[in-house]
Amino acid sequence: MSKIAKCPIKVPNNVEILLDKEVVIVIGNNGRLFLSKPSSVVIVKDQQKLIFNSKKKDWVITGTIRALVNNMIIGVYKGFTRKLEINGVGYRAKIFGRIINLMLGYTHRIEYKLPKNIFAETHSKTLIILKGADKQKLGIVAAEIRAVRPIEPYKGRGIRYTEEKVVYKEVKKNKG
C-alpha cells in the first residue's frame, strides 16, 4: 500500500477543486489545471481536505495521482519557479514578449517560444527565471532550454540550473 496515498491533502481557502469521475479540476489565483485520472482512484472532499482511496488494489497509481493533485494545488496557490544560469563569454539571453532570444556562441541566435501559462523574466543577461502553475510543463520547458547548450565539463560553458552542481574534468595532458 502506498504511504503517500494515505496522507490527506489540506486545501487552502482560495483554491477550488471540482471532482468528476474522470477529471480533477483545480482553480486558484495562478490559473486552472486539469488532470485525467483512472476510475479506480476515488477522491473524497471532506471540508478542506482531500482523501484518496482505491476501489481495487491500485494503491501505486493512487499515490501518483495524489502527488500530481498536490502539485496542482501548490501550483495554482503559490506557483513554481525554475532558474537557469548561462555561463560563457558572450553568452546571454533577452526576452521579447513570449520569445526568449538566446545568444550562445553559435553563428545564429536561437529563439525559443514559450508555451501558454509559462512566463519568463531576466534580472541579468545571464539569468533566466521561468514561472508557471504546472510543474510538469515548467520542467519540460526548462529542460528544452537547457538542451540548447548543455554545460560542458571542461570550462563550464553553457546553460545550467542554478542549483545544479557541475563536476569539472581535468584538462587532457600530452605525455610525449
UniProtKB/TrEMBL annotation:
The encoding gene: rpL6
Reported function: This protein binds to the 23S rRNA, and is important in its secondary structure. It is located near the subunit interface in the base of the L7/L12 stalk, and near the tRNA binding site of the peptidyltransferase center.
InterPro entries linked: Ribosomal_uL6-like, Ribosomal_uL6-like_a/b-dom_sf, Ribosomal_uL6_a/b-dom, Ribosomal_uL6_bac-type
GO molecular function, one term: rRNA binding
Gene3D superfamilies with a match to the protein in the record: Ribosomal protein L6, alpha-beta domain
GO CC terms in record: cytosolic large ribosomal subunit
Source organism: Candidatus Portiera aleyrodidarum
SUPFAM superfamilies in UniProt: Ribosomal protein L6 (SSF56053)
Large ribosomal subunit protein uL6 alpha-beta domain location: 11-79, 88-161
Name of this chain's protein: 50S ribosomal protein L6
Superkingdom field: Bacteria
Pfam families: Ribosomal_L6
Alphabetical GO biological process terms: cytoplasmic translation
Family under the similarity heading: Belongs to the universal ribosomal protein uL6 family.
UniProt entry keywords in alphabetical sequence: Ribonucleoprotein, Ribosomal protein, RNA-binding, rRNA-binding
